[in-house]
Amino acid sequence: MLTKNATHSLKAVLLIALALVMAAVILGQPEMAVPRSPRDDGWEREIVSWREQHAVELRKPDGWLALAGLEWLQPGDNPFGAAKDNKLHLPASAPGHLGVLHLQDDSITLNVPAEGFPAGFLIDGKPVQAQTLHTDADHDKNNPRLTIGTLNMYVIHRGERFALRIKDAKSAALRGFHGLKWYPPNQAYRVAARWVPYSPQKTFTIATLIGTSYPAQVPGSAEFTLNGETYRLDPILEDPEVAKLFFVLRDKTSTTTTYRACRFLYTGFPDKGLDKAGELVLDFNKLENPPCAYTPYATCPLPPPQNRLPIALPVGEQRYHE
Question: Does residue 61 register a pLDDT over 80?
């Protein structure tokens, strides 16, 4: 049984302890504060930074918003310039007659117009001269760039067709850019997927929005679970030398708030490489619109049947024009 003095001492100790606890709450001592995950904070900052960079890429002078034309070539001579008598028409800022693109079989030759190449016309940064133009099928990064003034042009090869893609650093789409629209970030849609390699890798035929198709290398599938259900997505390997996978997919939000045809998702390689079973992070908060969502002058792949999800992914980028 406690003595009277011991009871007073115990009460004093309890009061001091209570005061210390209250002070810790008021002052926000770490051991008493509500725990917050630094990983969550870092992830949200990453998403914000990624969105900002996505907008920067779109608004570059030669980005997707700079697209100002897509002119399809016919067999034989295809004069191009701003004048109305050209087969391929450029924006009004271009010279009347810039050059002649000659299509024969799968070969494109740049020839001199009657009045000669205009001053300031360059090819890959050097003064232009008549030459055969290299074109890769369905991939454009190595195709020669023709530039003059604010215009940047190159020939693209889609299926059995060729076209002159025209970009303008002062395009109407760039001048009229009004910002991108996003769903709020939601970490529930950042999922760990099981990587199932295909051995050997598969080749799928990918259809495009303009009616062409092309073969795409598919190294495996990513299986993930949302709300207790398992789904599978097949990515495209665009360049074996670059550790990046390209998912073209569509989900139920395409009927309401996201671009109707598809959205894109880029990821790194799985943790154990492409050839071994492993894990791959799919952050659907990084779903982005294809170029076709911003401009009628783009050619975009459509999702294969297995990438048309029967669920909604209410994260990532929403429609640009609505």
Answer: yes
The mean pLDDT value of the chain amounts to 89
Query: Phi and psi at residue 23, in whole multiples of 5°?
Result: -65, -40
Spatial contact of 108 and 155, defined as CB atoms under 8 Å apart: yes
Q: pLDDT tens, 147-171?
A: 999 999 999 999 889 999 999 999 9
Q: Give me the mean pLDDT over the 114-135 stretch.
A: 97
Burial class (CB in 10 A: 0-12, 13-18, 19+), 23: exposed
Do 284 and 249 form a contact (C-beta atoms < 8 A)?
no
Per-residue confidence (pLDDT) for residue 22, from 0 to 100:
39
Q: What are phi and psi of 202, to 5 degrees?
A: -95, 160
User: 142 exposed, middle or buried (CB, 10 Å; 0-12, 13-18, 19+)?
Assistant: exposed
In angstroms, the CA 89 to CA 297 distance is 13
Written as one letter, the residue type at 123 is I
Dihedral of alpha carbons 183, 50, 268, 288, sign: positive
C-alpha torsion angle, residues 144, 172, 63, 168 (rounded to 10): 20
Query: Is pLDDT of 20 > 90?
Result: no
* Model pTM score: 0.83
Residue 18 main-chain phi, psi, to 5 deg: -65, -40
CA distances from 246 to 243, 265, 288 (A): 10, 6, 11
